[in-house]
């Protein structure tokens, strides 16, 4: 019997692969490897077929076999790097991309892959990507990578140009279009705002992918927000086998709750949530922090480490490693504080590390997939009637969903650089991406209507300031009437509010920590309540401090209320006195009361799981 010639089998398998006949190609590869088990070409092609079918583990084993036989095959290193990247094994992926790039210096893909893993070193990543573009100026992935590197380096305008170039070269990179729009907003670049916004709407309607957080920044309706999240989750989140942990029983003893975030450092999330960790009842709860973000050795990070029962670094763990960690810790409830925000490890959520998984605080919307069981909200931000817009079941806390730390600083003297000694000061200390052209035009009209008034803005990286001043100049407003502050330590930032008379909320993405900071400092905030979670946060905060009259429901009402308060110093003084008076008693700043409500929610979730009941929405009754 004549055995098939391995060369002929490999040639036939390659032909079938090129024609899209994957099953035929796989059968021919298997026949080839039965005849010649060490055939490098057959092993490589079979690995590629497994990779195309989503069988990452099988593909990885074959690529490793290829490299054992011939370690000089760049594409084997590069393809294995992509698998390790998806698996969260980033250090290994970086080394593999590096080897692939050295072996094939003219191949753009592996250099781009290496650069994207080095975005924490954005200048080095940008140098690598510019080298790729010198060799191949039409490499859309390299342009997108350069855009992400420039964004990480604090250059949103440059990032937007690079991302626009990537999308222009390859419209299949549809995510680059929304990434470019998001970067433009960070630089307050509103050129073609309406057309770009409509393009986002159209892409959602066509089933394409957009940044879910961007849909909230620009006020896309909640139904489309859910569809955008579902599209991202379905196409970009790697589906991983569930950890056996999430099927285990929850015992009758104290619940182990693990909070996961990249933001356990000098960050708004840390400033809000640390008091909660300290207030948890240790008779009934064991509290862990799972951190996969940077260590800045700040006072905020040190306080969190002291506040929890276990502080665990997860940044170097794969999803499988994290499952082992979660099992060893006996986690009952996992609370994700990130969602679709920068630095998130959604692979950990999709691994299902705990019997109950909860979304809270960091992301005001749905994840759009089965990774999370519940979302913590309240009757204002997530009324029960909004359940169709969430894949998670809604849990409504009685006062406000947002936790606040009663130990946050309370400076008494204003920041000397925060504004003039005389004249009315409007404050809008929002990140520039929350501003829209219509909103900024409204604020400039208020400056026209209140002679001598100033507007205090916040531009952490300085990218938006020139555009904002130019827009004021074009509207006939002296740019000197804009006070624009940058980054500062928390206490210094809060001191800025001492020089502000009235805060103007952003919309459609309203203030979150920005608004609670203002109310904590005794400064009234006016808002325009809209559709969806992100559009209602300040409204929820105002209800919780007893000032619902500062909530409006359209732009005209918002502008009229701001003007009337600026012209009514006695009324404004009464509002400020109210905030000073209730600071120690209002539910918004009662960390212990909030903690009791959240712990009740956790108990109900745990009880439903013990009883074999599926997740279901519920409201938490108020405690005395």
What does this structure look like?
49% of the residues lie in helices and 9% in strands. With 624 residues, it is an alpha/beta fold. An 8-stranded parallel β-sheet has the order 3-2-1-4-5-6-7-14, covered by helices on one side. A 6-stranded parallel β-sheet has the order 10-9-8-11-12-13, with helices on both faces. Strand 11 (502-504), helix 22 and strand 12 form a beta-alpha-beta unit. Helix 1 runs parallel beside helix 3 (40-52), helix 5 (74-86) runs antiparallel to helix 6 (90-103) and helix 7 runs antiparallel to helix 8. The radius of gyration is 27 Å and the shape is globular. It starts with 5 loop residues before the first helix and ends in a 5-residue tail after the last strand.
Shape: globular
Kindly report the average pLDDT value. Answer: 93
- Please state how the strands of the largest beta sheet are arranged side by side: 3-2-1-4-5-6-7-14
Enumerate how many helices there are, as a single number: 26
Oligomeric state of this protein: single chain
């Amino acid at each position: 019997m004549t055995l098939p010639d391995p060369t002929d089998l490999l040639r036939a398998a390659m032909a079938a692969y090129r024609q899209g006949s994957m099953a035929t190609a796989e059968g021919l590869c298997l026949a080839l490897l039965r005849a010649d088990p060490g055939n490098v070409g057959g092993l490589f092609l079979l690995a590629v077929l497994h990779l195309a079918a989503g069988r990452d583990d099988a593909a990885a084993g074959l690529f490793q076999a290829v490299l054992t036989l011939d370690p000089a095959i760049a594409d084997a290193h590069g393809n294995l790097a992509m698998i390790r990247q998806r698996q969260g094994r980033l250090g290994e992926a970086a080394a593999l991309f590096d080897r692939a790039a050295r072996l094939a210096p003219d191949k753009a893909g592996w250099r781009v892959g290496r650069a994207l893993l080095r975005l924490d070193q954005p200048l080095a990543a940008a140098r690598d990507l510019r080298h790729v573009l010198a060799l191949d100026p039409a490499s859309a992935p390299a342009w997108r990578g350069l855009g992400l590197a420039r964004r990480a380096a604090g250059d949103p305008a440059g990032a937007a140009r690079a991302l626009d170039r990537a999308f222009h070269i390859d419209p299949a990179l549809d995510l680059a279009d929304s990434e470019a729009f998001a970067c433009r907003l960070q630089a307050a670049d509103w050129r073609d705002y309406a057309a770009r916004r409509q393009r986002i709407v159209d892409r959602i309607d066509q089933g394409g992918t957009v940044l879910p957080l961007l849909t909230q920044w620009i006020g896309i309706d909640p139904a489309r927000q859910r569809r955008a999240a579902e599209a991202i989750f379905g196409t970009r989140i790697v589906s991983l086998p569930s950890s056996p942990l999430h099927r285990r029983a929850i015992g009758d003893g104290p619940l182990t709750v693990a909070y996961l975030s990249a933001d356990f450092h000098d960050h708004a999330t840390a400033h809000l949530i640390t008091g909660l960790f300290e207030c948890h009842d240790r008779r009934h709860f064991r509290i862990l922090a799972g951190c996969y973000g940077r260590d800045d050795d700040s006072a905020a990070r040190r306080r969190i480490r002291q506040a929890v029962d276990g502080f665990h670094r997860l940044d170097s763990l794969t999803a499988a490693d994290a499952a082992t960690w979660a099992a060893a810790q006996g986690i009952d409830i996992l609370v994700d504080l990130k969602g679709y925000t920068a630095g998130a490890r959604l692979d950990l959520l999709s691994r299902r590390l705990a019997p109950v998984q909860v979304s809270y605080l960091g992301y005001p919307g749905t994840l759009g997939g089965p990774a999370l069981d519940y979302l913590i909200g309240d009757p204002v931000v997530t009324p029960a009637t909004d359940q169709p817009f969430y894949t998670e079941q809604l849990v409504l806390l009685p006062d406000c969903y947002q936790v606040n730390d009663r130990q946050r600083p309370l400076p008494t003297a204003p920041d000397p650089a925060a504004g003039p000694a005389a004249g009315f000061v409007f404050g809008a200390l929002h990140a520039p991406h929350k501003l829209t052209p219509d909103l900024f035009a409204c604020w400039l009209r208020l400056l026209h209507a209140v002679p001598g008034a100033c507007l205090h803005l916040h531009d952490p990286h300085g990218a938006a300031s020139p555009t904002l001043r130019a827009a004021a100049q074009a509207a006939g407003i002296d740019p000197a009437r804009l006070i624009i502050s940058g980054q500062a330590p928390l206490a210094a930032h809060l001191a800025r509010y001492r020089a502000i008379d009235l805060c103007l909320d952003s919309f459609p993405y309203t203030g979150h920590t920005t608004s609670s900071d203002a109310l904590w400092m005794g400064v009234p905030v006016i808002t325009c309540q809209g559709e969806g979670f992100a559009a209602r946060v300040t409204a929820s905060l105002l209800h919780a401090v007893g000032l619902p009259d500062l909530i409006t429901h359209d732009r005209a009402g918002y502008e009229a209320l701001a003007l009337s308060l600026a012209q009514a110093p006695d009324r404004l003084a009464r509002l400020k006195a109210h905030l000073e008076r209730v600071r120690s008693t209002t539910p918004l700043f009662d960390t212990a009361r909030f903690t009791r409500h959240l712990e009740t929610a956790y108990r109900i979730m745990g009880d439903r799981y013990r009883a074999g009941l599926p997740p279901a929405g519920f409201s938490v009754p108020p405690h005395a």
